[in-house]
Write a structure and sequence with these properties.
The structure holds two protein chains of two kinds.
Chain A lengths: L5 E5 L8 H12 L3 E4 L6 H10 L4 E6 L4 H14 L6 E6 L6 H6 L4 E3 L5 H11 L3
Parallel strand pairs in A: 1-2, 1-3, 3-4, 4-5
Helix pairs in contact in A: 1-5, 2-3
Chain B lengths: L3 H25 L29 H5 L22 E2 L2 E2 L4 H13 L5 E3 L3 H4 L23 H7 L10 E3 L5 H15 L8 E3 L4 H7 L6 H18 L3 E2 L1 E4 L1 H5 L4 H21 L4 H4 L3 E7 L3 H22 L12 E5 L11 H15 L4 E3 L12 H16 L14 H23 L3 H6 L2 H18 L27 H16 L2 H16 L5 H9 L4 H12 L9
The chains are: A alpha/beta, B alpha/beta.
Family (chain B): Belongs to the methylmalonyl-CoA mutase family.
EC number (chain B): 5.4.99.2
Keywords (chain B): Cobalamin, Cobalt, Isomerase, Metal-binding
């Protein structure tokens, strides 16, 4: 039997809105994945350390404060520096449409905005996980 | 309200209606669902009649506006006397930018200010702190020192406006800055009107901008209660907030239950600190959410008022009537706004505005249609304010007090919500009070379960969200949105280093030392914080001193 997909659900930055992150975490778990949730106020360095230590396949970040353009790419580049480039990195939150191409260019592979069904996130991860 | 004989007759006539009319009708046209219920899972009956409120005692349970138990409203004439305060939460980028937005809102007929601070300010970091990177000026205005606060209120007479500040962990610092700005304008602190949120418990539960552990946080809060009762008597020293609890996914019943339970914890802490309940309780205020389920929301506000009045009178033996009055601010529900077809949000906000007004709110913020996308644009904010003005001046619902009272459904729902909220409060009491219930993760878990259930209902189409899981269209999402210039961070940091080079550093260091000493002892910290801000000690410096004494809160992660 396949090992379950391991996902780090992370809240970078100072933003305290974690309803979405927690709902996502629970629905991924209900879909059979192993989920580690970081809790609030994680620096990019902390997120990267947790991703490596927990040996996850996916890093799913959530930001609703508008700091995504700064924080998402920073996590991606730190992960690359650490040689962890086989991870699927996705993000979600209140993210304006115009910002999405730049974030994807920076290495965040998909961005999920308000109104997304948790099933879509589950399916996306299953289809795109790199192993 | 009804005698037994009449109720008995009613019961049999209702049974007859059921047999003669309903059973036949349902056979031909089944109802849309097997079971109807409110968002709090209170089952909704087909029809409400006097039977549902047979036990209701008008004078005891409803009474009159401005009188115990305040079910019908806290003011004697409600909106016939004065409309609610229209108060749009605003703030972004720099103090200069936000000052412009405030002046614009006041010109548009807004009657009070409501300051949104950025996250570094809310968590007690200066703009140049490494953790502030990317966050400066994003969800509110960046305030590092009194200098920024002077610019924020430049040209706004603080003896004329009332100001609400959404600030919690460092609330005493921002209040001190406000008092200092007023002093510079020649306005003495006893004339200041406004509110600081100052509600740390819901930060641990739902909102996340905590700094210190619960015990020293409660001390900072009771210090403010004490200082204001003597020096700033018109200031609302706390806004006990259900808003964020609801946004995090709580039901309407959970919203009032957990909020009033927080209120109980603050009252207990202040009494413990040696204050008399009637000295501080009149300045407690509340902050609720207004959601889409219009009638449940109206019942919620009425139930909260009645329950709080009883708690203050019976549990805390308050004697002053003002201590029993639950005054509240309302904000429409951000979490109900959709990124899809954002114009539809105007209609949602209208329904929510009606809920708040029919529920007897004292002030209201209406959300803008574009808030599921970004910070609101000026146009969107104007429509949101106009929504309140239309309800106030055109809808007619303001002309009589508590117009939905006496509706069989509303009264029955008010009773039921009060009952269920009380059950939660009892449960929290059994766990040892709110701080303990938070530590055990009980409250967070209850909210998370409701949030998850709500999302699953949407995904299974048991709950319809127009434009999201039904009635969708293809649309172009590239909308006109407000963006905060990333230069703001640089600008703010330049201001900060200029300030540090200009102020009397030695004086600042000495004052911070005194603050540290006072924090280690058992002194009221407000006067020390006030002297520190007046010498332009920064928010980050003051909070760092307190961090060094109090330590920092570690969140218990519960999934």
């Amino acid at each position: 039997m396949d090992m379950p997909i391991r996902v780090l659900v992370a809240k970078p930055g100072l933003d305290g809105h974690d309803r979405g992150a927690k709902v996502i975490a629970r629905s991924l778990r209900d879909a059979g994945m192993e989920v580690i949730y970081t809790g609030l106020r994680q620096t990019p360095e902390q997120i990267v350390a947790a991703a490596i230590q927990e040996d996850v396949d996916v890093v799913a970040m959530s930001i609703l404060s508008g700091a995504h353009n700064h924080l998402f790419p920073k996590v991606v580049s730190l992960l690359k520096e650490e040689g962890a480039d086989d991870l699927l990195i996705i993000g979600g939150g209140v993210i304006p449409e115009d910002d999405i191409p730049k974030l994807k260019e920076a290495g965040v592979e998909e961005i999920f905005t308000p109104g997304t069904s948790t099933k879509d996130v589950v399916n996306y991860i299953k289809e795109h996980v790199k192993r | 309200m009804f005698d037994d004989e009449k109720l008995k007759n009613l019961k049999s006539s209702k049974e007859e209606w059921q047999k003669k009319t309903i059973d036949k009708a349902i056979k031909r046209f089944p109802e849309r669902k097997e079971k109807f219920s409110t968002t709090s899972e209170i089952e909704v009956e087909r029809l409400y009649t006097p039977e549902n409120i047979g036990d209701l005692d008008y004078e005891k349970d409803l009474g009159y506006p401005g009188e115990y138990p305040y079910t019908r409203g806290v003011q004697p004439t409600m909106y016939r006397g004065r409309l609610w305060t229209m108060r749009q939460y605003a703030g972004f980028a720099t103090a200069e930018e936000s000052n412009k937005r405030y002046k614009y809102l006041l010109e548009q007929g807004q009657t009070g200010l409501s300051v949104a601070f950025d996250l570094p300010t809310q968590i007690g970091y200066d703009s140049d702190h490494p953790l502030s990177a990317g966050e400066v000026g994003k969800v509110g205005v960046a305030i590092d020192s009194l200098k920024d606060m002077e610019i924020l209120f430049d040209g706004i007479p603080l003896d004329k406006v009332s100001t609400s500040m959404t600030i919690n962990a460092p609330a005493s610092v921002l209040l001190a800055m406000y008092i200092a700005v007023a002093e510079k304008q020649g306005v003495s602190q006893d004339k200041l009107r406004g509110t600081i949120q100052n509600d740390i418990l819901k930060e641990y539960i739902a909102r996340g901008t905590y700094i210190f552990p619960p015990e020293p946080s409660m001390r900072l809060i009771t210090d403010v209660f004490e200082y204001c009762s003597k020096n700033v008597p018109k200031w609302n020293t706390i806004s006990i907030s259900g808003y964020h609890i609801r946004e995090a996914g709580a039901t309407a019943v959970q919203e009032i239950a957990f909020t009033l339970a927080d209120g109980i914890a603050y009252v207990e802490a202040a009494i413990e600190a040696g204050l008399d309940v009637d000295d501080f309780a009149p300045r407690l205020s509340f902050f609720f959410n207004a959601h889409n389920d219009l009638l449940e929301e109206v019942a919620k506000f009425r139930a909260a008022r009645r329950l709080w009045a009883k708690i203050m009178k019976e549990r805390f033996n308050a004697k002053n009537e003002k201590s029993m009055r639950l005054k509240f601010h309302t904000q429409t529900a951000g979490s109900t706004l959709t990124a899809q077809q954002p114009d539809n949000n105007i209609i949602r906000v209208t329904i929510q505005t009606l809920a708040a007004v029919l529920g007897g709110t004292q002030s209201l913020h209406t959300n803008s249609k574009d808030e599921a996308l970004a910070l609101p644009t000026e146009d969107a904010v104007r429509i949101a304010l106009r929504t309140q003005q239309i309800v106030a001046h055109e809808s007619g619902v303001t002309e009589t007090i508590d117009p939905l009272a006496g509706s069989y459904y509303i009264e029955s729902l008010t009773n039921e919500m009060e009952k269920r909220a009380m059950e939660y409060i009892k449960k929290i009491d059994e766990l040892g009070g709110t701080p303990k219930a938070i530590e055990k993760g009980y409250i967070q878990k209850e909210i998370q379960n409701s949030a998850y259930k709500y999302q699953m209902e949407i995904e299974s189409n048991d709950r319809i969200v127009v434009g999201v899981n039904k009635f969708y269209i293809e649309e172009d999402h590239k909308k006109d949105i407000l963006r905060v210039d990333p230069e703001v961070e640089k600008l703010q940091n330049e201001k900060l280093s200029k300030l540090k080079s200009e102020r009397d550093s030695e004086k600042v260091q000495n004052i911070l030392k005194e603050l540290k000493k006072a924090a280690n002892e058992d002194k009221n910290l407000m006067p020390y914080i006030l002297s520190a801000v007046k010498e332009y000690a920064t928010l980050g410096e003051i909070c760092d001193v307190l961090r060094s004494v109090f330590g920092e809160y570690e969140q218990s992660v519960i999934l």
